[in-house]
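FAQ: What does the model actually see?

It sees only this:
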Amino acid sequence: MIRERKEYLSVLIFNIIIILQIIQQIPNAMDKTIQLRVRKQIDNSREVKVLKLKGTLISKGFTQIIHIADQDEDFYLNSFSTSPDCKKQAEDFVLNYISSHDLEDTISLLSPVR
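And it is asked to produce this:
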């Protein structure tokens, strides 16, 4: 009887793990995407500031990952998803960071919340 319970629990745990993995792969329809346009050719000090912005977005919990794609020969398109409750706060943070670190010619927020 104990052996049957152990086997049952093993199968149950395995199924729960599979379900959790599937759930993690399904994009949350409630997530909101924020897009940043980042200039490709920048000096080292601006590059450090851009990296700090991305790191801070992650460490503040706005997102877990930032996707980077080529937009054209001059710009990258960086995008990340955040919860609807955090979207305005994340966009405000990005705009304030851009302004306070003199990055207006380096990063722009695409379609910010108004």
